[in-house]
Fold this protein.
Amino acid sequence: MEHLRPSVMVGICYRDPRAALAWLEAAFGFETCLVIEGPDGGITHSEMKVVREP
Amino acid sequence: MSDTDAQTLTPALLYRDPKAAMLFLEHAFGFETVMVIEDPDGGPSFHGEMRLGCSTLRIGAEWSADHASPASLNGKNTQTLAIQIKTDVDAHCAQARAAGADIFAEPATQFYGDRTYRCRDFEGHIWVIAQTLQIVTREEAEAASGLKITGWS
């Protein structure tokens, strides 16, 4: 996995994580950087990054 | 208050007893207290800030009807906190246990190359602590887990 990670990360639980990824991208400008899916297509883990303002 | 570029996203944790929480987080995980704002009359206003490495964490009280500790919600969590360390995760676990953390998943090496343990703190917040032991490629992780991975780097 990635070498440089912040020392503390926060994980949020959603009933519908795929919808949450789309909503957080649209509403707050987060960027999806990792999606791990199970055989049924459900998301088991994902990671988003805050895109800094210029 | 000074370096607004240090961190863009800051998680906040709510506790029934936020002052006790800050002591616990110092002893269990090595957070450092950098700020406390409190009501001199012991009222519900409380704002604490702690730091670990390059990360900041906010500590609050149950300050509205929509803000609660897991201790007030039968242990339910809607968020989890992950700590990434560079030092020995087994020693970290021993320190957390000594400070009163409830270790519900003992240290174990995961398919993605990290060794992790999971615990609940004294009010029920769930924490996962990870130390990277080995760099694993996406192909290796997919083969080991049977999962489909997009965006691994």
